[in-house]
């Protein structure tokens, strides 16, 4: 079997790691692999957003399965191209990927399907947005509608800040993504990320996890792509998962299918667990990063088998994911300056690792055999242990022992869970 992974971040390294365990005899390929992936696969020097070239390469190289990691190639139609060439692909069509690539589309779909989410308005000019913000009051959330690498949502505590944020978005702070701005009611509660393997209206959940979006300890400072994650999450019950399945995932998958854009791939539900029950913060059309680095090391059953079943269209029946009874805590190491400007090219040193600690690479590359930084989020350290506190300590200790110039990480990943357990 010949498997191509499109993408080269921490999530894709975790996918490569898991799929190699599931299919040890397979040949693996990845686009522009990072410094941690490169030793374990054959590199393909094509950007995953160059969808015509990559689909052509996959056809010419007899690829049996393509797993698409990031949202940008999906939004650009990579899965459509591959399906058109008869190549099994795990990832939704561009039309279904609008659940992530257009927040305005996602909000309208949810409203039509009666899915609980924050009240909202979509605006295309600054004065209408300002009037809406003044009418709704603060706190309030201002979001660029398009793709912004997790940085396009700003929680504002005052009306003035929200008006200024919307104005910045319209004046191009997020490029085209900010041409439409979604103004949203602020929801209070605890966040939860749930991954669903989905095919049409069928779906199975993986273990729920929690991300840490803010750059600073204690969840302070600007939003990032994600600074750490852990799984499982103590407050998640079977009843909650059932409620999310029934009130959120079922109607959304049905609405996509009925609208002519059935979803096939990984549906990520970003939820706020409020006093009134679960409500949607956002959907993503792919695995979350860094939640994947926490969830996959706990998955004891094959990921390859359900992924391939979805990709070739045979569906999910009989595929029930199984998880080890342990906790995983993932600490992200970022370059100083992230989520703003940061420097690249700093040499990275990783000590030898204890058992059950995995280092997934994100922004690294190998230059003349030497590992150097090449992105804002550089590495993710996942520790697995039957005891949550030990997993947390091990993740933090290994993160502290890794060195590169300007290395930053949050030492408090999992703090909500730790507080719950005391
Ligand atoms: P998004 O890009 O929509 O996932 O938003 C990024 C982050 O902003 C979320 O993970 C939340 O922490 C926060 N956020 C977004 N929308 C809301 C909301 N309506 N109420 C409260 N927090 C929100
Ligand atoms: N961790 C959030 C995301 O992947 O969008």
Describe this structure in words.
A hairpin with a 2-residue loop joins strand 20 and strand 21 (370-373). Helix 5 (94-101) crosses helix 6, helix 6 crosses helix 9 and helix 7 (126-136) runs antiparallel to helix 8. With 422 residues, this protein is α+β, with helices and mostly antiparallel strands. The strands form 6 sheets. Strands 12, 15, 18, 19, 22 and 23 form a 6-stranded antiparallel sheet that branches. A 5-stranded parallel sheet has the order 3-2-1-4-5, sandwiched between helices. Helices cover 32% and strands 28% of the residues. It starts with a strand and ends with a helix. 51% of the residues are buried. The protein binds adenosine monophosphate and glycine. Adenosine monophosphate binds at residues 118, 141, 143, 150, 152-153, 155, 184-187, 191, 213, 223, 270, 281-282.
Question: In short, what is this structure?
Answer:
The chain is α+β, with helices and mostly antiparallel strands and 422 residues long. It is 32% helix and 28% strand. Helix 5 packs across helix 6 (103-113).
Please tell me what the overall shape is. Answer: globular
In terms of per-residue confidence, which ranges show pLDDT below 50 for 5 or more consecutive residues? none
Bound molecules: adenosine monophosphate, glycine
- Overall number of strands: 23
Helix content: 25-40%
């Amino acid at each position: 079997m010949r498997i191509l992974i499109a993408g080269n971040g921490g999530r894709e390294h975790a996918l490569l790691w898991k799929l190699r365990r599931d299919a040890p005899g397979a040949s693996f390929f990845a686009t522009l692999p990072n410094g941690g992936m490169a030793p374990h696969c054959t590199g393909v020097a094509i950007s995953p957003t160059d969808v015509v070239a990559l689909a052509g390469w996959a056809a010419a190289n007899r690829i049996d399965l393509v797993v698409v990691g990031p949202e940008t190639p999906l939004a650009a139609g990579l899965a459509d191209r591959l399906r058109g060439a008869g190549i099994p692909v795990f990832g939704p069509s561009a039309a279904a990927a609008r659940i992530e690539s257009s927040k305005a589309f996602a909000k309208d779909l949810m409203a039509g399907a009666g899915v609980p989410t924050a009240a909202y308005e979509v605006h295309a000019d600054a004065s209408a947005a300002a009037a809406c913000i003044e009418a709704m009051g603060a706190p309030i959330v201002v979001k660029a509608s398009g793709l912004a690498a997790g940085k396009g949502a700003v929680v504002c505590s005052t009306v003035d800040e929200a008006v200024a944020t919307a104005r910045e978005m319209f004046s191009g702070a997020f490029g085209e993504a900010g041409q439409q701005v979604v103004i949203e009611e602020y929801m209070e509660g605890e966040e939860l990320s749930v991954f669903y393997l989905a095919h049409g209206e069928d779906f199975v959940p993986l273990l729920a996890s929690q991300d840490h979006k803010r750059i600073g300890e204690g969840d302070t400072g600007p939003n990032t792509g994600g600074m750490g994650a852990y799984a499982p999450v103590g407050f998640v019950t079977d009843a909650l998962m059932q409620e999310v399945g029934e009130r959120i995932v079922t109607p959304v998958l049905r609405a996509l299918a009925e609208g002519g854009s059935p979803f096939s791939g990984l549906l990520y539900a970003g939820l706020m667990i409020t006093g009134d029950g679960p409500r949607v913060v956002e959907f993503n059309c792919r695995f979350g990063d860094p939640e994947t680095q926490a969830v996959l090391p706990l998955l004891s059953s094959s990921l390859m088998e359900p992924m391939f079943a979805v990709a070739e269209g045979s569906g999910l029946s009989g595929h029930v994911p199984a998880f080890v009874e342990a906790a995983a805590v993932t600490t992200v190491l970022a370059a100083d300056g992230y989520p703003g400007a940061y420097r690249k090219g700093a040499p990275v040193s990783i000590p030898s690792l204890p058992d059950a600690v995995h280092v997934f690479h994100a922004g690294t590359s190998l230059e003349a055999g030497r590992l150097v930084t090449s992105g804002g989020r550089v590495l993710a350290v996942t520790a697995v242990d039957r005891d949550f506190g030990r997993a947390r300590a091990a993740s933090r200790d290994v993160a502290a022992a890794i060195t590169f110039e300007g290395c930053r990480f949050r030492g408090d990943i999992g703090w909500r869970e730790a507080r719950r357990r005391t």
